[in-house]
Amino acid sequence: MSIASLRTGKLAPKVAADALRPSRRAWMLSGAGGLGLGWLAYGGFRGGRVEVGNGRSAVEPIIESTALADDHVLAGAAASRFCILLLEDAERQLTGVSDLRATFYKRERVNGELTDLNVMDLKVRRAPLSVYMRWREPYAGREIIWQEDANDGQILVHAGGWQRKIVPLLRLDPLGERAMEYNRRPVTQIGLWNFNRRLLDNLRVDLEHPDVKVWMTQDKKVGGREAYCFRVVHTDRAEQAAYHKMLMYIDQQLGLPVACELYGWPELEGGDPPLEESYAFNDLQLEVGLSDLDFDITNPEYEFRSRPRKSEE
Fold first, then answer.
1. One-character DSSP codes across 30-80
2. Model-level pTM?
3. What pairing do the DSSP bridges indicate for beta strands 225-234 and 245-251?
4. Contacts of 300 (CB under 8 A, 6+ apart)
5. Do 260 and 250 contact (CB within 8 A), yes or no?
6. 45, 215, 292, 311: which has the highest count of C-beta atoms within 10 A?
7. All structural domains of the chain
């Protein structure tokens, strides 16, 4: 039975388990070493606002629950193996994808505090790696452009709102202090390609943690689209896993991961785990034919303005 056929309709646990034939050792996922998913977006520059948030995940605005039937659940080794096979299949699919557009949702904890929920229009071209973002919130109108082979490798940033009139066009080192101030990973590592690869690498590396519980349900929609929801929970703090709980959402039709939430260990036994990182791609479009103009500040659809450029480290 193929991955494509497994993604068609609803999975019965016995059928899935028989088809996937998990090995004698449980395939288990842990957060050891951290997923480091902050490379999905450039979050801000000095002067940006960071507040202690209410713990709302970036996935929450676009997720909904549906009815859960008994045959919509997998658990243990079968769930872990199915997740691995889906991500391996996604990796093969993504080798043929040259660009994408999406609405990107991001919220992560940096220096102990949650950033505001960031919602951005996103364009990414795989080669040469190129990125355009326009913020919807909280910095409405802010735009950035980065290309690996242009602008001396610098991120071009202009502020949104009233700041656009007074803040010069900035050129930031993507690995510098200001570009990384509110981010876990640099913009140079952006993309659904890296998102899938990082998830898959962690799945393959961290299979031997006996405390991990893994299960999959089909009771969620992300952006109105049915998704497999994989839950990975560490039960033993002594294992020193970086995360207590991870939720990963894989679009059932596309077969691609579109969202992820990671939670740390609660301060008190039985308490709510604190949100550490969360990311979601909504309205995902693949192979849209992005051109050099999509990553050029002279694009008439963008609000970059000619002004003295200020280089920053």
1. --TT---GGGG-----TT----------TTGGGEEE----GGGEEEHHHHH
2. 0.82
3. antiparallel
4. none
5. no
6. 45
7. 27-295 (2.50.20.20)
